[in-house]
Amino acid sequence: MSMETTLRKSVSDDAQEVYRAIALIELGARMQLLETELTLSRDRMIRLYRELKGMPPPKGMLPFSADWYMTWMPNIHSSLFYNIYLFLKEQTRCSRLDALTKAYRLYVEHCGQNRLEVVLSLTRAWTLVRFFEADMLQQTPCCRCKGKFVAHRHDLQAHFVCGACQPPSRAGRTKKAASSKAECGSLAA
Ligand SMILES: [Zn+2]
């Protein structure tokens, strides 16, 4: 490879990384995500963050509990996101990080179109993917709707009924149950 080609490649790689950082910051990425996933220097990412958000990046711990994904509404949203993510990762040739970005954007669009609250933040979505990569989670099919839902790694698979097919009684409002049912339908493989 000639010197010129090497240079040109690294400049375009750098531009790609900046482009990825911008997309992630706009979707709500925190510094921990950017620092883990991108090769840009911390200073540049902080500058980018300030420029795009008009404020310094927030400090503080990220959420770190797999149990959050098991609660009723978060489980439906996480499962929806993860199905989109897996589809993009397996069916298109995009990288894991691009699949995350694109899947999250599609998830937010889906919520907007269906007037649903965006329950899953980008940080939670990223953490979800990392929990799957660490084999802490698995997908369990619902025996009624056949959708695949996020579950703990060693949870029993048989006779599982998802939170959309069987909402908890406190969530008994008809409209909410109907909308989660519709979402659940889109999870069936
Ligand atoms: Zn179900």
TrEMBL record:
Membrane-spanning residues: none
GO BP terms in the entry: bacterial-type flagellum organization; positive regulation of DNA-templated transcription; regulation of bacterial-type flagellum assembly
Keywords attached to this entry: Activator, Bacterial flagellum biogenesis, Cell projection, Cilium, Cytoplasm, DNA-binding, Flagellum, Metal-binding, Transcription, Transcription regulation, Zinc
Stretch forming the signal peptide: none
InterPro entries: FlhC
GO cellular component, one term: cytoplasm
Binding-site residues, Zn(2+): 142, 145, 162, 165
Cofactor field: Zn(2+)
Location(s), subcellular: Cytoplasm
Superkingdom as given in the UniProt entry: Bacteria
MF (Gene Ontology): DNA binding; zinc ion binding
A Pfam family annotated for this UniProt entry: FlhC
Cofactor note: Binds 1 zinc ion per subunit.
Assembly with partners or alone: Heterohexamer composed of two FlhC and four FlhD subunits. Each FlhC binds a FlhD dimer, forming a heterotrimer, and a hexamer assembles by dimerization of two heterotrimers.
Function: Functions in complex with FlhD as a master transcriptional regulator that regulates transcription of several flagellar and non-flagellar operons by binding to their promoter region. Activates expression of class 2 flagellar genes, including fliA, which is a flagellum-specific sigma factor that turns on the class 3 genes. Also regulates genes whose products function in a variety of physiological pathways.
UniProt xrefs under NCBIfam families: PRK12722.1
The family this protein is said to belong to: Belongs to the FlhC family.
Protein name: Flagellar transcriptional regulator FlhC
Organism: Caballeronia zhejiangensis
Source taxonomy: Bacteria, Pseudomonadati, Pseudomonadota, Betaproteobacteria, Burkholderiales
Designated gene of the protein: flhC
